[in-house]
Write a structure and sequence with these properties.
CATH architecture of the largest domain: 3-Layer(aba) Sandwich
Strand order of the largest sheet: 1-2-4-3-5-9-6-7
CATH superfamily of the largest domain: Zn peptidases
Largest sheet: 8 strands, mixed
CATH class of the largest domain: Alpha Beta
Number of helices: 15
Helix content: 25-40%
Structural class: alpha/beta
Length: 573
């Protein structure tokens, strides 16, 4: 057992058939983690060296780089293939959170057994592409103090990359070089299944291997691929894990870890996450969340079983998955759900949830009652708490992006979102969006997010040469909506891509601004109502003459196109 820097709850005894997967100590192809009895996990250089040797020993494997990290390390993947006509691809990644590294050591074991131990039949109808360490820079910052809630290995990497960006919050905005490389790999491979290996946080329970999908399947944006995950993938891996001695369940995300009986949460997801992104682009995507308090050895073996079963069901259902992907990509949703709130009543129940007993004790550290998990199994009825939609936006016919917004256009290209560029001026009535009471939020993931409410106005607009039209009628139209609709929680606007909007309009003399403001208030009833509402709601603004005049000047007309105006316009149906 790895020595943890904190005292974790007691471990329940475990053994299972998956232990037969372990290499004997004398096996020349024992993996570094097996050789260390899962006390430690190998560093990047050791993983690379081991894979280079395995690649040289087997014609089934090809080790390649698909990009570089922020600190200049090669991002690696192994393709396991029998060659011949192109086959569908199962893409598996490990270590997007580098302290949750079970997938790496499980994948090394599985690759060995495919290449040298008779499991090459897994490649009869699919290829495996395995990324052993996605967040390599974070992986190399190993410490006993990283991920102290995860039982082993002794030293773990960090959750974020060298810029402190969580790569599993970056799929949509694509700021990190690792993310950009992964998006390119996804576009190149277009896998029939994408598996992202993690380890959970939360509360103690009897389950050791858990997994889920975008929106827990229930709130997926694309139904055909979600239905395959729910109806075929989930049952197949559950059977395999149970037979191998593991205790699987759909990932139980707790509402309150201090009171597990309050329930687990199902909710929609945006494209910032691997699972949400896969859903938006029509790729079946699985989030593996092994239970943090199970021993590392047990978790790695469970991951191996899940990955092997994933290859088998993907191969068996390759045609069915391809049809589901095509169905989702041919769909043209007309609305985007942007806000939701917990439902007042459970949407379902787990009648016999396999939990662990705990007690409360007064902690001298926190000064309050804290949990002490006792290791004793209990069962209880667990409510599943779903979500109630509170805001939905109707998608336009297209979005218009000014040519100057190269950062946005770069992201559209990276995501493979289709657009066309004007070669002659064009005049159109467009929905122009103005921000109302914008606020900068706590800096997060390398950005300063922004919140606001929005006022939509239909205005005739002259679009100059170079303006970019992004049609909603395309396979990635829903992804385009999530990134370009101002109300979307994952929009470029929400992530703070347009700070110039918040700069004040150029100033001028107060006597001129006062006269202009008085004229506006006398002639524009809507503006007057908005101004008076702001005076009532914001006492500091109401008592600041310069702020009042600056606000009126910014709203004076087309002479000030930048303050509080979202630069991307919407072409309505």
């Amino acid at each position: 057992m790895a020595q943890d820097v904190v005292t974790l709850p007691p471990v329940r005894p475990w053994s299972g058939q998956s232990e037969r997967l372990l290499a004997k100590p004398s096996d020349p192809w024992i993996t570094p983690a097996e050789a260390a009895n899962f006390q430690t996990t190998p560093r990047y250089a050791e993983v690379r060296t081991w894979l280079e040797k395995l690649d040289a020993a087997s014609p089934l494997l090809t080790l390649q780089s698909f990009g570089r990290t922020g600190e200049g390390r090669d991002l690696l993947y192994v393709r396991a293939s029998k060659g011949g006509p192109a086959k569908p691809v199962v893409l598996v990644q490990a270590g997007i959170h580098a302290g949750e590294i079970d997938g790496k050591d499980a994948g090394l074991m599985l690759l060995r057994d495919i290449a040298l131990r008779g499991k090459d039949n897994l490649l009869d109808r699919v290829d495996l592409v395995f990324v052993p360490i996605y967040n390599i820079d974070g992986h190399e910052q190993q410490s006993e103090w990283n991920f102290v809630h995860v039982r082993g290995p002794i030293r773990k990497g960090r959750d974020a990359n060298a810029r402190n960006i969580d790569l599993n919050r970056d799929y949509g905005k694509a700021d990190a070089p690792e993310t950009r490389a992964m998006l390119g790999l996804l576009r190149e491979l277009d896998p029939i299944l994408y598996v992202d290996c993690h380890v959970s946080e939360g509360f103690d329970m009897q389950y050791d291997v858990t997994f889920t999908y975008a929106g827990w399947g229930t709130y997926a944006r694309h139904r055909a691929t979600a239905d395959w995950l729910e109806g075929r993938f989930g049952p197949a891996v559950t059977r395999a894990l149970t037979k191998a001695g593991h205790t699987p369940i759909k990932y139980p995300s707790p509402l309150d870890t201090r009171e597990p009986t309050k329930g687990i949460r199902y909710s929609p997801e945006g494209p910032r996450y691997s699972t949400g992104y896969g859903d938006f682009i029509g790729v079946p995507t699985v989030l593996v969340e092994n239970h943090m308090l199970k021993p590392y050895r047990q978790r790695v073996l469970g991951t191996y079983v899940l990955l092997e079963a994933a290859l088998q069901i993907a191969a068996q259902d390759a045609g069915r998955v391809a049809a589901a992907k095509a169905q989702d990509r041919a769909s043209r949703p007309t609305e985007l759900l942007t806000r939701w709130t917990p439902a007042s009543q459970p949407i379902g129940w787990i009648e016999q949830f396999k939990g662990i007993a705990f007690e409360l004790y007064p902690s001298p550290a926190s000064g309050r009652l804290e949990q002490r998990w006792l290791g004793r199994p209990v069962t209880f009825r667990m409510p599943i708490i779903g979500q109630q939609p509170t805001q939905t936006v109707r998608l336009p016919k297209a979005w218009w992006v000014p040519a100057a917004h190269t950062e946005v256009l770069d992201r559209l290209r990276l995501h493979g979102i289709q657009f066309e560029t004007l070669n002659a001026p064009r005049t159109l009535p467009l929905d122009q969006v103005r921000l109302v009471d914008p606020k900068l939020l706590q800096p997060n993931e390398g950005r300063v997010p922004l919140s606001a409410t929005f006022r939509h106005e239909l205005q005739e607009q002259v679009l100059p040469v170079g303006s970019v039209r992004v049609p909603a009628d395309q396979p990635k139209g829903l992804l385009a909506a999530a990134l370009l609709e101002p109300e979307s929680q994952d929009s470029f606007l929400a992530w703070g891509f347009f700070p110039e909007m918040l700069a004040p309009a150029p100033n001028t003399d107060a006597f001129v601004l006062a006269a202009l403001g008085e004229r506006l208030l006398a002639t524009d009833a809507g503006l007057k109502a908005e101004f008076e509402a702001k005076l009532r709601a914001d006492p500091a603004f109401a008592t600041d003459p310069d702020a009042r005049l600056a606000w009126l000047y910014a709203h004076a007309g087309p002479g000030h196109p930048y303050p509080f105006r979202y630069p991307i316009a919407r072409e309505l149906n």
